[in-house]
Amino acid sequence: MIAPASTVERQPLNSGGDRTIAERAFRAVHEAIVNGQFAPGHRLRIEELAERFQISPTPIREALHRLEAVGLVEHIPHRGARVTDLSLEDLRDLYDVRLRLEPLAIRKAAERFTPEIAAAARGHLDAIEAAERRKDFAEAWKAHTRFHFTLYAASGSPWLVRLITPLWESSQRYRLRLMPLRRDLKRRTQDHEQILQACVAHNPKAASTELRQHLISTANRIAIEMRSPALFEVSRTRGES
Q1: What integer best gives the mean pLDDT of the chain?
Q2: How much is the average pLDDT of 147-160?
Q3: How far apart are the C-alpha atoms of 222 and 230, rounded to whole Å?
Q4: Strands 73-76 and 43-44
Q5: pLDDT at res. 184
Q6: Exposure string for 81-96, b = 16+ CB within 10 A, e = fewer
Q7: Is the dihedral of CA 9, 14, 18, 19 positive or negative?
Q8: Which of 114, 37, 123 is nearest to 83 (CA)?
Q9: CATH topology for the 88-225 domain
Q10: Class assignment of domain 5-83?
Q11: What is the DSSP letter of 87?
Q12: Cys-Cys with 105: which of 16, 155, 171, 210 at CB 3.0–4.6 Å?
């Protein structure tokens, strides 16, 4: 259950230097948006946010500008800032870009995969299962994120990771709002295993294809939840490039 914005506990953020306060303000508002505490279309009034997080308006204003740059906030003339709406057009655009960047990252990762990276990725998959058994779905999603970004970081390309991160976070809004967490993660177990095994085998083509189908499947399921036909065509044979 996503908590309404009005029930979010106020968090004092007014300790530390100016740079630290600004970063904390950004992370607080960012997390509230990504986790659904501030719903799509929610008005983001600077004074209300300042009161909620017990911080001056200036760092909040800076945080909203940064969030606009990564697509989570939009400014409406004469009305101020609000959380960006969810839409099929945005979903299609979002996954179209992800389908270009993330398979590239995983190809590079498969080429340079090591036993140490494999062990770390395996640990995150185990953490997903353990969290699901405890019904701690928030922790399961955190482990899910750590799994994917362990693989992306293995690409050796900081720029790819930087570009993927805001796209991932925007996708999280759709996943958490429109899909039951437990069902989604359990159904993704086989996908994760196949992606990891392709990386361990140093098979860039298979790793890229498995990840691509993983992303397409997720995008199509979200679209169906939004009462739309599937957005992307799924390859009939796994392993095709």
Answers
A1: 86
A2: 98
A3: 9
A4: unpaired
A5: 60
A6: bbbbebeeebbeebbe
A7: negative
A8: 37
A9: Four Helix Bundle (Hemerythrin (Met), subunit A) (1.20.120)
A10: mainly alpha
A11: -
A12: 155
